[in-house]
Queue: 2 jobs
Job 1
Amino acid sequence: MEFILLIKGLIILTIFALSLGIAAYETYFERVIAAYIQDRVGPDRAGPFGILQPLADAGKLFFKEDFIPTLADKGLFIIGPGIAMLTALMSSAVIPFGDTLLIKGQYIPVQGMDVNIGILWVFGIVSLGVYGILIGGWASNNKYSLYGAIRAASQNISYELAMGITLLSVIVVTGSLSIRTIVGLQHGIDWNIFYQPVGFLIFVTCSLAECNRTPFDLPESENELVAGYHTEYGSMKLGLYLFSEYVNMFISSAIIASLFLGAYNYPGMDFVHSFLTGKLGESFGHNLATVLGILVYILKIFFFIFVFMWVRWTLPRFKYDQLMNMAWKWMMPLSIVNLIIVAAAELSPYPLLFNYIGLAIFAFLYFGSRTVYNNKKSKL
Amino acid sequence: MVSQFGFVLLFMIAGIFLVLLVLGIARILRPSRPNPEKNAIYESGEETEGTAHVSFNLRFYIVALIFILFDVELVLLFPWASVFGDKALFDDTKGVWAIYAGIEMFIFVFVLALGLVYAWKKGHLDWIKPSQEETNFKSPVPKELYKDINEKYA
Amino acid sequence: MHFLEIIKNLSLVQWAFYFLSILTLYGALGTILSKNPIHSVIYLVVTFFSISGIYIMLNAQFLAAVNVIVYAGAIMVLFLFVLMFLNLKEESTEMKTSPMLIAAVSTGLLLGLILIATIRKAEITRVNYNDFDPNTGLIETLGMVLYKNYMLPFELVSVLFLVAMSGAILLGKREKGESHF
């Protein structure tokens, strides 16, 4: 009994350390990438190449004075960032970091927990993520904060719908809500991105919006709202808000990579596995192959984190009406069309081929009708 | 399977513990010298007028209302999606399942889309734009250029 | 002494159950006792979340997820919006007149009495542990049931949503000359 608890405790600690460690170094990478894109030097003082910068930042946040505004709702003011951090960390429980480890003849999956409703769990936690921002913004009793919080809530719920419909189209293909099963079905290079490229694009866009990353960072747009929902925050409470954003980024990258890019699957993995087990023995070879898979997964995660940052320094911020229009008038209809195409293709004998045929038909109908409409308009 | 969820409970407790730990350490380390100026609400240097807890645009409320309806519909589609592509059923019924499942899906999603179209047509997905007033300022730039740009990025 | 014995002998599942139950009750009491309506909503979220935990202990996973997504994630956000929109003051929730208080208490007591009487009379069907299918609450089972037995109600639900949608849209109709800020 105690042994199991100990193992579980170790797993929890590892997952926390991994998410927090990666999140901490995301802040460093963000600065480095920003510096590279803007053609400047970037952090280079703390340690060689500035790699100790995250530690310096954390230290600074710990030693900063923190004050709670007199008119603020004290309890909620403290709870807000806590909830933001908690919801960010919670969804990391279901991420399948790797295949199984063979220890003493037992296959142990490299995952916090494998539940039947893995995706729904993530979706539920994402829908709870609104509260951290909404509570913090409201409790500050600051007008900027309240506007930021309400914008954030409205934006998150709008993009959640398109995200959910895209999740549905993934489930239609896999027939399971367990993330491990979904990943298992994308063996080798049989990745979902090839079956539903449109769904992939919608999902990436929605994750950008859910993380409040730059083209969608209306809740904290500095030229209108000072700092948005965390205007009144300082010290480690601000740290928790900023950190939760980076943890969210890591987790959404991990979810994208596992839903659409097959997580720890890579082409030729069967060959590598049989080669390693043949050379190094059943147990060690299997474990080494699993570790290779984990590395591949982390590589994919880092690729998406890079894409998030790349987008941040490339695209300007949307206006609020553009943002809402995009959610309701572009993402929603497109995801419904995508769901219908994917479902219809799934019932056909060749899902891959029929999916592209469906997309081609849709594109033809859409652009065709638009050209006809435009021609009529110009004739009038 | 229940033990897997027990893990979630542990995870949650560990998360709460972590947050408390971080806030606690910060509390011990940081200085605390509050004064009325520091504790004032920040409003870009101005004195704050009244409370921030004011009524805001009704539009946000309508968005939340429409969101709930779609969300419930979405959640009802999850069980449907999980049995949709069932290969065993497909083989048992010699392909009749495909037609059956396809039609059921189409009706439900069609009604979902109908709701979206209705809200769209009624103008509830349009965000209010502030009305722009013309000024007396004579600009050397001809107005048509602005008009073209506004139409292009409308 | 007897009490301590019971606590010592609790299994892990019982610990989890009591923890969740206490959390649920705490949230529920907080909802009705807190003066600030925003606090009430947040307590209610805690209640929904812990009720989801209890659903999971019954292996009703889908129900738990739906409870979190729809109730805690969507409806409570709407509640928060409404409360922020209405801008309720703390004083307005205070009960000042004693006739009101007496009426409320007596109505509550009567309702409780009726509930207790009904529950006492009701037949409680006990589940036979031996032939109970533990997969009843799983999403695949639900999907099959929805497909096979409740096909028409399932489709009709979508029409119901359409009606609800038009109702929501009617509610949000903009009056001419109404100003927003």
Job 2
Amino acid sequence: MSITRSLLDRIKLGSGSGLSPSLGKKLSYAAIVLILVFPFIPFIDNYWIDIGFYFGIYALLGLSLNIVLGEVGLFDLGHTGFYAIGAYTTAILNTHFHIPILILLPVSAIIAGLFAWLVTSPVIHLKGDYLCIVTIGIGEIVRLTMINNPLGLTGGPNGINGIDTPVFFFPIISSRQFYYLIWIVMGFVTFGLLRLQRSRIGRAWNFIREDETAAEALGVDVRHYKLGAFILGAALAGIAGNIYASKQMSVSPESFTFMESSLLFCIVLLGGLGSIPGTMLGALVITVFPEVFRPFAKYRLMFFGLALLFMMIFRPAGILPRKRDSLETLLKAISGKRKGRKEQAAEAGAEKSLTHPSVQPVPPANKRGGMLLSVRDAHLSFGGVMAVAGIDVEVERGKITALIGPNGAGKTTLFNLITGIYKPQKGSISFNGEEISGQIPHRIVQKGIARTFQNIRIFPTLTCLENVLCGQHCHGKAGYAASIFHLPYQQEEEQAMFDSAKRCLERVGLGDSLDLLASSLPYGKRRYLEIARALAVKPDLIVLDEPSSGLNDAETDELADLLIDLVRDGYSILLIEHDMHLVDKVSDHVIVMQSGKKIAEGEMCVVRENPKVIEAYLGTDED
Amino acid sequence: MKTFIEQLVNGLTVGSFYALVALGYSMVYGVMKLINFAHGDLFALGAFLGYSLLTGAAGKISETIGLWGGIAFAAFVVSASIALAGILVERIAYRPVYPSGRLSLVVSALGMAIFIQNGIMAIWGARPQAFPASVVPSARIAVMGAPMTVLQLTILGISFLLMLIIWFIIEKTPFGAAIRAAAQDRETATLVGIDVRKVIIFVFALGPGLGGMAGLMNGLYYRAISFNMGWNYGLKAFTATILGGIGNIPGAMLGGLLLGIVESLLSGYVSGAWKDVFVFMMLIAVLIFKPTGILGEKVAEKV
């Protein structure tokens, strides 16, 4: 029993891959060499080279879907639609206008990307299964449209024939040439995706996958990154479509069925969600499996269905799940090729963060005193229930303000109004003198409000460091190109982010858990991880929703000390709390809420004596 | 007017197939929050099983007790066997995978669907089969001037009867209340003493049982059946489920009938070739503007 348990923990810690980094590296090199020399191995005839080509196509499609499904966690069961758009773009433009195939390669990518942007924009807010159904619908609409031959463009059920071969100084015709074409493209794509994975963008995708609400509440523009993933995924599928069309010299709707989308879905899940080598392995299994079972032609797909089933029963995380990088690996990745500048960059990073107010021991004088946040006459009702009924709340700079009140008083709802998860129906919220009510959460984070959640919302399968990097996200600027090409400013930015995130973790006493997965932390430490993540935003105001819930007395005392220290560092804090000892110990100002209204405020010792407050908590004698 | 009534009744017939299949999707989704991708293929399995029975054993019965007797016998055997198959699907493909999360369930559901579909192909072949005319009743009557077959009217009658029974079970019996409770909150349902395991087995038997029955009726109605018909019907029925509000039992029936009528009118008056495109666009529009469907209720996410 205990062996099983520790084994499970081990799997969790190692993210299940079981491959040591050095062995993994050796295997990757071996795989690359094998792919390079494959067409020249004796006994490998054109038939098998073609299978190698289709392996490449499926690997590319798998990687393109992996961005959407694996990295961002969006169920996309209509990915073939984008593949079809790429293939038909190539086919139509080539046969009608005789544009060379290789020029159409980027064109197909762009058209497929544009199409994805167009069709997913209105539905990107849908969650889980609903989005999944929409993508099924999109895939089917594309296929049916191709069958219906609009304007005589798509050739109906028979599709389009007579597509040219690509010409790259020489025509690419033979199986071997096509094989190298797809794998060269794959090489570039893999390189770019590996870089993206280990960047601000890849991390943002993962934050969204792990917990969309938490990601948005900590400054990630969720909509933007979801759309970005769809567009990039579609563009890559479009490239696959282009190469596929020119290899086949024809396209027809039969190649783009729902079954095909399901296969792609299975490739990603078989290989391991979010894992690039895993996805390739998944593609290998899917392309080679039918060949191995060719003698049993009649039963092979039946076996395939069974294999999927057993795979999900016995290895649900996939063959090669992604292993999260340690800080060391991450640092090596950004400074490996610039050893000379490594020290320099580290220093620059350290200097930069030292000058930042959040890590300075004494906050700037102008940060002391004055109003930081003021909520005026805020209203919000759910159906007939007035959750927040015209409340005024003010938070002073450099103070700890506590919001207390019985359950259902509307405290968390007020927090959600302040942090932008809900919009007030009436009233105003101003922060640093600026109106913020009605803005989306990630914008409010940028203005300097960071929060934690009542029921802890960390990103369980990411490391502690990565969790905290989420708070840093809104301060970064590096986009797709900068992340793929490792532009100097992106490298410095990453370095500074790591340094700063590390310091935030040290600040809450988690300096030794950088590389641990967040899910492996005990409950109490997860609270601290959430606080560190909020600190990484470098906020003026930290909003804590019941930070002591689930902590024992000793841990609560520790928490109180931390909060007092944080205020000394120059932060202002607004907290919801039920533990009156904690409130008594740390708060400068207490606001009591009941039924969506403020019933008292002042210092704790005064508020405690207020008859209204006593009544709210204990009820009156008369009943 | 004659065409309209014809189209309407055709739509209702197809719609009742959708509705019966949609019920299975909806019940399973309600309790499990799982899209049972294998459901459409169980429907196809029902059609093929019915075909074999009517051309084999039940055909012999028909000779002694008449055409309708044979069909009734086939219907009984098909529903029972597909219900059993549904229980097996849950036992083999889903129960061991529950702990691994939603994504793994989607894949094992797809795996099961591929398995059943190709199993049908392995047994009955890749070419479409046709119910021989000798086993399909061909009597005709005219309703308001529109010619119809007795078979079609019988199918409609039985479908509505089945839906009525399901509605009664779900809404009016204590066991139905247990199902609804499990659909709203599985954990709390367990806490108040509902045997959720039993509920799960029940919905996995009832849903496919109805689906198999619909498969048989579909085969009798169109005569032609093919091993991959499950994908398409499954997708349509699933669309119907969304239209009505997923997890909502009357919604599934309403969605199915509505979808059948809309499809039929579209192909009758607009364009048969584009009708499926319209249907899927309608699906997306519903998800954008009223994701809970016609009868579904909104569930707010707690932050």
